Amino acid sequence: MKWDDDLSTVTPITLTVDPHGYFLHWTDQNKETEFLDITHIKDARTGRSTKTPKEAKLRELLDVGNLVGRIENRLLTIVTGPDMVNITYLNFMALQEEEATEWAEELFSLASNLLSHNMNRETSLEKAIVRMFSADKKRVETALEHCNLPFGRSNSIPLEDFTPDVYRSFLSHLCPRPELSSVFSQQGAKGAYLSVDQMTEFINERQRDPRLNEILYPPLRPSQIQTLMEKYELNQSLLKQGLITLEGFSRYLVSDENGVIPPEKLDQSEDMTFPLSHYFINSSHNTYLTAGQLAGSSSVEMYRQVMLAGCRCVELDCWKGRTAEEEPVITHGFTMTSEICFKEVIEAIAECAFKTSPFPVILSFENHVDSPKQQAKMAEYCRSIFGDALLIDPLEKYPVRFYLGYPLPSPQELMGKILIKNKKSHKPSAAHGNKQLAEHPANQSAAEEHATDEPLSPSNITAGEIEAEDDDDDDDCKKTSDEGTAEEREAVATEEMSTLVNYVQPTKFNSFEASKKVNRSYQMSSFVETKALEHLTKSPVEFIYIKQQLSRIYPKGTRVDSSNYMPQLFWNAGCQLVALNFQTIDLSMQLNLGMYEYNGKSGYRLKPEFMRRPDKHFDPFAESTVDGIVANTVKVKIISGQFLSDKKVGVYIELDMFGLPVDTRRKALKTKTSQSNAINPVWDEEPIIFKKVVLPTLASLRIAAFEEGGKFIGHRIIPVPAIRPGYRYIGLRNEKNQSLILPAVFVYIEVKDYVPDTFADVIEALSNPIRYVNLLEQRSQQLAALTLEEGEEETSKEPKDNLRSAPLENGLSPSPTVTPRTLTNIPQSCFLVVSEPTKPAAKTEDMVQSVLIDMEAATLEELRQHKLIVREQKRHYREMKDVVKRHQKKTLEMVKEQTTKDNQAQNQHTRRHNTLLKTKQHGRSECVCVLSLTPDKCVSKAELKQFDEDGEDQLRELREQQQQLLELRQEQYYSEKYLKREHIKQKLTTVTEESQNNQMKKLKDICDKEKKDLKKKMDKRRTEKIKEAMTKEKHLLEDAQAKRQERLVEQHKDIQQQILDEKPKLQGAVEAEYQEKFCLLPGEIQDFLLNRKGGVKSHVVPQGDGKRAILLNKCWFTTAL
């Protein structure tokens, strides 16, 4: 049943989807059918998130007693609309809960299928209907007549007669395509056919991407081309002859095999195991707003729509609720925008966070809630509603520490998790540092201590770092006119909110130097676009700090109309969270949607390698090529358009290139306006060439169609790395980035590696050596005719005739012998290598071996002598020295304290002793004599007992002091042990990996150099055996390279195995060394103290019922040992 809240009606309907999955149909009892394009569906919901009837009458009509399940679980809400603000809800109710759930899941799966949003031309034509054809009546009737179909006003066409083949025939007569015939004939078609060889050459030369590796992606063979032709050519007799007609050729051009974007680019194809800071992350600013920044309504639905669009970072401006329930709200502070409930937003995020993408979501809190009670509510809502999806405790592998610069986890490791970005309070406890050793018992390994999630004790943080933390907490949010409208600083985070924050902790940006020095990857800074532009302009290279830390850019406050800045500016600098106003679909937002449509619409795009490696420097304003990146040359020719408008107007095409400043060209091409033809306009103008695209990985091509008055028709944004070269149809999209069914542009695109003009002749010669050699031969003959002396004509003609009549065995004619005087008149740049043609060619294997340079892996002994090892050893020595010095200082302080206490105890003991000597007792039987006293002086038993107890107290105190000293020295040894273990790892593993990587890179460079050398030698033989020189030598060199690489990899494995075998030995030696030190530690401490005090004074006190000897030293009791 379909129900409408506005009309208060309930209509029984039948809901269906066509077999192709294009449209959703619902038919009522009167057989009236309505339909919806499934690609326009944004969400399909059931359960709590569905729309429920507001009126009681509707609820009664829907809540039929014989239906199974609760009414909420049987409801199905389909969300559709042109953008994220103007949303329409279609409400249905199923008979059973399972039916509603199944419909919701399947519809969302169809609607979110990326291939359905990137249809090929054939699929688009299948979706189209006849009434959408933009043509006059007479033209349509003529096309129907050519197809032998009824064309009168009163006639109708039986559905079974309008087959796909008839439909294509109708389109070909309605919209003649002379430009296709021209393309067909340019491929060498003799008459109306192309042969298998011609089709093979067309696909491999025109349609294949030259940037692909020929080994991994080899050119197609004629047998594969024959199979391809069988799919699209209907004439079987021609297929047996290996021929394809223009109709079959046209079917191939509109097929899946010829799409402008490879399907694998749409799937999640990028590596997701790098740290978060190595990705561009789809981000939203003031997500809750539906219109301007100063007035308008806030909407919970915006969070759903933004998440469904692939956004992975949303913003929540939280304010104190002033209702009796004291519920926190979300709104734009100090403006006239409406408020929405914080709890409802959290519920909406929980529902839609991972429907489109499984990768982590970041909630950017701007917390102005100054009520601890309401902040506690916010924290509780996050915990209870998100559940296990909320990441509270850091991952064990990635602790949040104040030192060592731990990297952030990867999106793969945080899959399905929600991260909170909020101010975090820092209240270090002074007692924590004193208890650190007690919290880590002696049997806990250093690795376990290293892996703990607790932060480093504040006692180990430098004063500068503490001051920086205080500055971060005091970072007020009083914004200028550029930075926003809120005039109030963020509230101090309570403990409940602080515990939710881990890997995304906001901090005030002071300078690039300070950020690099602190090196805390979990801290991130936010920049208003004007401040970010200032930093980008003044310090473009210093932006490398974001290779380890996240940065967020947001629009300036003066954009009260919710317009957007150009995100390409900050993608060029490597900024990860470039936040935009999603409610405004302008050109900036269209670029953003185009950027994140790829990689499975995951909301994450991997940054180029040089933006991830700390050893690489990059200036976004540089015009030279980037180290390690091959620049591209892009050529685009606009040939024609199809069904661009349903009006009788002229249309034109514009072309833009977005990327680095040096790559960006706005309105690089504008075609002429067609003459009142928007169905099949043909331009066929000169192509536009983007000679040098410095950074193609961040460059995008935009093709846009306009009516002659400037009205926007449609556009398409395609990243340069995803473009397939060749003859392609590009389906257009509207300004909301929704696919248009019929409008398309037919183009020819060339994308290849950039070659400077100085090397253009060389590349041309290498790519087509036969043509080049023939050209040299022709030039030599022409010049020879001009330089011949009188009387030499006959002798020169005879060899020429002989040469022509005596071809070599391989079918190639030898090049003529040219006199030196002739060669001097030709520029040297025209030749590859000039060699003597009479010399015999060297053997292929000898030629390959002559350029090979053998390379051996560095041995373990060589690695130990590496300069990095030496430098690391010096650094390790300084670290060990610092550790020992720090603990010696603590030891001396403790010994000084013990000595003071011991002197006090000794003085007290002496006074007591003298007092007892002066005490006299006469005539008592219960007395004892002290051996060290004179025989005539006695003391009472009670006083002696008290004296003994005092001695025991002193003994216990000295034992405690000994234990403290023991623990201090243990802490020192643990620190030394940990440092040595880390040193072993750094000295062996890290340096080895770096050395091996350098060797592999050097091997690649050597191979490239060898290839160049080999090509030079091969050129000497090219005039005699050009085919052999271009095939066999190359394969032999690659075989040799593969063998050397295998051998080098095996050697690397052996070295790594030696390291693995040696690491336990070194660690065992360290364990044994410090175990021996631990065993000798008590005696060492005793000797140390005895040497400092010097002299022993003992007193033996016999008691009545037993004998006990107590050796009393000034600072030690031997019974303590």
Topology (elements, then pairings):
Elements: E1 2-4, E2 9-11, E3 13-17, E4 23-28, E5 33-37, E6 41-45, H1 56-62, H2 71-74, E7 75-80, E8 88-93, H3 97-111, H4 121-127, H5 137-146, H6 164-174, H7 178-186, E9 193-195, H8 196-207, H9 222-232, H10 236-240, E10 243-245, H11 246-253, H12 263-266, E11 279-284, E12 295-296, H13 301-308, E13 313-319, E14 329-330, E15 336-337, E16 340-341, H14 342-352, E17 361-367, H15 372-386, E18 418-421, H16 430-434, H17 436-439, H18 446-451, H19 463-473, H20 495-498, E19 505-506, H21 512-518, E20 523-528, H22 529-538, E21 551-554, H23 568-571, E22 577-580, H24 587-595, E23 604-606, E24 632-642, E25 651-658, E26 665-670, E27 688-693, E28 700-707, E29 712-719, E30 726-733, E31 739-753, H25 760-767, H26 769-787, H27 793-805, H28 820-824, H29 844-851, H30 860-864, H31 867-918, H32 941-1021, H33 1026-1093
Parallel strand pairs: 11-22, 12-15, 13-17, 17-18, 19-20, 20-21, 21-22
Antiparallel strand pairs: 1-2, 1-8, 3-4, 4-5, 6-7, 7-8, 9-10, 11-23, 13-14, 14-16, 24-27, 24-31, 25-26, 25-28, 28-29, 30-31
